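Deliverable D2.4 — example input (structure tokens):
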């Protein structure tokens, strides 16, 4: 039976001041193996997600054989059982403690860096990608399914950037795709993680990761949370984080079942 995760007041205060928080052992190693199996079905294309899959590192890396940074939006649309599994439930539980009981899941996504792709995720603030909503509360949980190290592409955060304005962002490549802003490792802290551990960060927290120069995968599973009222505001204004329409999702699910 899952154990409820209760944050301490110092943890909550650290997040508020610094814009990120490490939570060790959010899920068990046994659960990590189950998530890896599902994750690899997405990566291999066994679960066909169509236009929900893209190369976030297109035009940033050198690989022409594999995606430089694989991004898959809304995996729970294609495997709905994910919503009831431990990760989504525990991440929501922690997010509510950090930012309020009115938080709900806004979207989820997979971001993988394959072996030796060595493509950075540029410095950015998630808020730069999003609709300008009245209530800026937003928390992203970044769960590592592998050992996230400096060499494989662990996360770096700029402490306290959540309390400042969003920096000017531009496209990292001429053809669009990833956004980037000016920041450096000198002002940041690297967070290495073991499988099953995670970080939470505010939507305004500056972060980035190096490329994966190792022979292993760097599988990350991200779930974002914000106030339910703001999710309704987003959807009413046509903003859904790249979600396909219901007919497309059903078609892909039917193909998977076949």
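Example output (designed residues):
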């Amino acid at each position: 039976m899952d154990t409820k995760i209760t944050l301490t007041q110092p943890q909550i205060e650290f997040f508020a001041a610094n814009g990120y928080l490490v939570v060790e052992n959010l899920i068990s190693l046994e659960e990590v193996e189950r998530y890896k199996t599902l994750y690899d079905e997405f990566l291999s294309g066994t679960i066909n997600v169509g236009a929900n899959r893209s190369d976030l590192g297109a035009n940033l890396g050198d690989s022409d054989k594999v995606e430089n940074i694989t991004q898959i939006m809304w995996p729970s649309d294609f495997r709905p059982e994910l919503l009831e599994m431990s990760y989504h439930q525990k991440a929501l539980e922690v997010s509510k403690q950090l930012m309020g009981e009115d938080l709900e899941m806004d979207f989820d996504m997979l971001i993988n860096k394959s072996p030796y792709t060595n493509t950075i995720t540029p410095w950015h603030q998630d808020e730069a990608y999003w609709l300008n909503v009245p209530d800026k509360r937003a928390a992203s949980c970044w769960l590592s399914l592998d050992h996230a190290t400096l060499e494989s592409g662990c996360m770096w955060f700029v402490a306290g950037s959540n309390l400042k304005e969003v920096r000017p962002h531009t496209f990292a490549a001429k053809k669009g795709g990833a956004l980037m802003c000016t920041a450096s490792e000198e002002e940041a802290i690297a967070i290495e993680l073991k499988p099953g551990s995670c970080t939470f960060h505010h939507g305004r927290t500056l972060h980035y990761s190096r490329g994966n120069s190792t022979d292993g995968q760097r599988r990350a599973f991200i779930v974002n949370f914000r106030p339910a009222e703001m999710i309704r505001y987003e959807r009413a204004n046509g903003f859904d984080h790249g979600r396909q329409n219901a007919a497309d999702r059903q078609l892909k699910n039917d193909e998977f079942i076949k």
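The two ends are 33 Å apart (CA to CA).
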